[in-house]
Amino acid sequence: MEPVVTQTNKCSGGPPGPTSAERVVTLLAAADSLTVTTGEAREEFAGLHSLDAVGRLLLWAPAHSCVTQVLDATGGDAKACIEITDVAAAAVRDRVRARLTAHGWLSLMHRDECYGTPELLLELDHVQLTERGRVTVLTPDELVRADVDPLAVQEADLLLHLADAHPEAIDQLTRLVHPDVLQSATRVLPLALDRYGIVLRVERLSGHRDVRLPFPHRAVDAVSAQRGLGALLAEAARRARRCRAQH
User: Where is the DUF2470 domain (predicted)?
Assistant: First the structure.
C-alpha cells in the first residue's frame, strides 16, 4: 500500500501526524469493542476496557464469560491476546485503517460488587500495530508516554458529518492536493481526523492514495479542529482565486 502523502506545511512545533504510540493509545480509547483470546476461549468485549496510567489494560468481562471460565480453570491467570480493528467511519474503499494486537498476561482480579462481573487485568508484554502494510512493535513504556488524541471519541461523528453534510468542503480541500495525486481520481472522501490534521482518501479506478493535510496548529478539542479545517478551507479558497487570476 502506498504511504500517506503529506501536503501543505506541517503543524508548527511538531510532526505532521501521530506517532505509532499515539495511534495505539487512541485506538484503545476509541474502540467500541475488542476481542480477547486466551487458551481455547475467544470472546468479544464491547465497551468494557480502559488503559491505566502504568500501561495495563483493564477489562470488565460480560456475564458468563468463557474467558473468565478459562482463567478460573487455570488458577486465575493465563497468556492472552487482545485484538482491535480500526475501521474508517466513511464508506471508503478498503475501510480497515489499522489492526492492533496486544500480547500479555491476563489475570482475574475480583468481581465487581455492583454488577457481579469479573474485572480482568492484562499486563502488557508488547503491542503490535499494523497500519498501511507496516508492522510496528511497541512496549508498555512507550504507550505510557503517549497521549490519547483529543478527537478520539468524536472522530467518527465529525468525519461522517463532513462527508454527508459538507461534500463541497471535501471538494474544496482537494485544491490543496497535488494534481498528480488527483489524476484519474474517481472519488475523494475523508479517511481520518486527529489533532494534527485531516487525511483524505483519493480513490482511483485502480487503487487509492491517502493525503494528509496538516492543520496550522495542533487541535486540542473539536472546536479547534473545526478552526483548523476552516484554515485549510481558507487556504484552498486563496489558491482557487490565484488560479483564476492567472488564467
Answer: 156-226
1: closest CA among 131, 162, 165, 161? 131
- Sketch out the chain's domains with CATH numbers: 5-15+151-246 (3.20.180.10), 20-144 (2.30.110.10)
Contact in structure between 35 and 241 (CB atoms under 8 Å): no
Q: Map grid coordinates 506545511 to a residue.
A: 9
| Segments of the chain with pLDDT less than 70 | 1-2, 8-14, 110-118, 247
Residue showing cell 488458577: 75
- 220 DSSP β-pair partners: none
Burial of residue 21, with CB atoms counted within 10 A of its CB: 0-12 exposed, 13-18 middle, 19 or more buried: buried
Cell triple for 188: 475523494
Phi, psi of 209, rounded to the nearest 5 degrees: -140, 140
Pairing of strands 197-204, 185-194: antiparallel
Phi, psi of 147 (to 5 degrees): -100, 140
DSSP 192-212: EEETTEEEEEEEESS-EEEEE
Q: Coil, strand, or helix at residue 13? A: coil
CA 158 to chain centre: 13
Longest dimension (CA), the chain: 76
How many helices (H) and strands (E) would you count in the chain? Answer: 7, 12
User: What cell does 3 get?
Assistant: 504511504
How many other CB atoms sit within 10 Å of the CB of residue 153?
A: 13
- Taking the CA atoms of 151, 155, 159 and 160 in sequence, report the sign of the dihedral they define: negative
